[in-house]
Amino acid sequence: xxxxxxxxxxxxxxxxxxxxxxxxxxxxxxxxxxxxxxxxxxxxxxxxxxxxxxxxxxxxxxxxxxxxxxxxxxxxxxxxxxxxxxxxxxxxxxxxxxxxxxxxxxxxxxxxxxxxxxxxxxxxxxxxxxxxxxxxxxxxxxxxxxxxxxxxxxxxxxxxxxxxxxxxxxxxxxxxxxxxxxxxxxxxxxxxxxxxxxxxxxxxxxxxxxxxxxxxxxxxxxxxxxxxxxxxxxxxxxxxxxxxxxxxxxxxxxxxxxxxxxxxxxxxxxxxx
Length: 273
Description:
Helix content: 10-25%
Number of strands: 15
Strand content: 15-25%
Strand order of the largest sheet: 2-3-4-5-6-7-8-9
CATH topology: Metallo-beta-lactamase, Chain A
Shape: globular
Distance between the termini: 8 Å
CATH class: Alpha Beta
Oligomer: single chain
């Protein structure tokens, strides 16, 4: 059996806003959409092309994301870019609809682009009976590819992020070949995508409750555990103050950092099925 790293509730961070987002600082918020989070970067009232969307949620969430963006940034405000941590179905479900409506470029790591340009599906899921219902259902999850056509762009080779001054992307493969995490040195804020998550994504019960726990990437969709371990080690070495992930609540403080360090140190016992 794999282990867990439970966290007490007081380490959750952010203020819940009327538009459904959880605000982490004046330029950063996230929105939970069913089983996954999307991140919005930009100040309130930033206006057209004044903000960035990170990941694009599950299928059917386009209207919710668009409505939240309008409330936060202004009616009709389009992002300057959509940045993807990776291309799994629960991170690109509304991508094609939103990219078309907003006429927005989509940025992803070059190794992720075959899954976003119609070329290649992801490998089949690896369900495990002991991991819970989400794992058992995983063979039914869409594997793509999707095709966002000419809107697709490679992330800048210099590590910068379009529209997100002061942030850089870090290649964190394992969960997918082109998975990236986003890092702001000044605030020590980490958007980890699914390289690290803060709930047991394999369990419907824990997904519903969102009990804060430090976990490795979802087991049923992670093909390369050697790379996943290296990626977690690289993220733990950053010693972030705030951790935002693709699944689960944002966490902050020493308990979170200690949990991330323990995950990196004991990765094979904690994370690998």
